[in-house]
Design a protein that fits this description.
This protein is mostly helical. It is 80% helix and 2% strand. It has a two-stranded antiparallel ribbon. Strand 1 and strand 2 form a beta hairpin. The chain is globular, with a radius of gyration of 19 Å.
Length: 221
């Protein structure tokens, strides 16, 4: 019971954070139009970073057994966001004003508002079929779109990492070892899209498990 209340409080906190971000983005767009897109990171970036930092707890929840989700798919999804948000976007001010940042934030928060709403109700044993269907169906088209947006954000950032030398390391003599960070990002693109294929397969299996005919009948009853 205590762990269930803790998970409910965690989901509620994340729901409030992502709902605030999502609502803020919509209101700003309706008020300022396209001008609001370039200022997305500066307006909501702090709250977004806090939400993503707290999401690391979800890996811990799975490791200690209070969350029954599969570890690897969740680990991939969380680390992808952490790397793109903190390493790529936060470190390069020139990237922060790109429209792709707004697209990423919109996709992430749309998915998370639905997911944390579903999780909160599930902690209380409440299952609404439309919400269940939305939770396990919406992620299938939107997650690959978010991966494409992450890849595009990385590609946009490459010229700035090349010109500024951010995170590139060249060790002094007698070492002949150096790390050219744009190469690291290019290799990570391969990992990103390989991980997408694995995660999408897991999303389909989760959808089948939760929206199978038998499960739907049980939840209706």
């Amino acid at each position: 019971f205590t762990m269930n209340m803790y998970l409910f409080a965690y989901d509620l906190m994340q729901f409030c954070g992502h709902s605030w971000i999502f609502t803020n983005m919509i209101i700003r767009f309706m008020t300022f139009g396209k001008d609001s897109l370039a200022d997305t990171f500066h307006s909501i970036g702090l709250v977004m970073r806090l939400c993503q930092m707290f999401s690391v707890l979800e890996i811990l929840h799975i490791l200690i057994g209070i969350d029954k989700s599969r570890l690897l798919p969740r680990f991939l999804q969380i680390t992808e966001r952490i790397i793109v948000l903190f390493v790529v976007i936060t470190s390069q001010e020139e990237v922060q004003g790109k429209y792709v940042v707004c697209v990423l934030f919109f996709l992430w928060n749309l998915l998370d508002v639905v997911r944390y709403t579903y999780n909160m109700l599930a902690r209380m044993g409440i299952y609404y079929l439309p919400l269940t269907w939305l939770n396990f169906s919406l992620c299938i088209p939107l997650y690959p779109l978010s991966v494409l947006a992450k890849g595009f954000a990385i590609c946009v950032s490459l010229p700035y990492f090349e010109s500024f030398g951010t995170y590139s390391i060249k060790l002094p003599f007698p070492f002949t070892f150096s790390i050219y960070f744009p190469y690291v990002l290019k290799m990570y693109l391969l990992v990103l899209f390989a991980g997408m294929c694995f995660t999408v397969q897991n999303l389909f299996s989760e959808r089948t498990a939760h929206l199978g005919t038998g499960n739907i009948k049980n939840k209706r009853s």
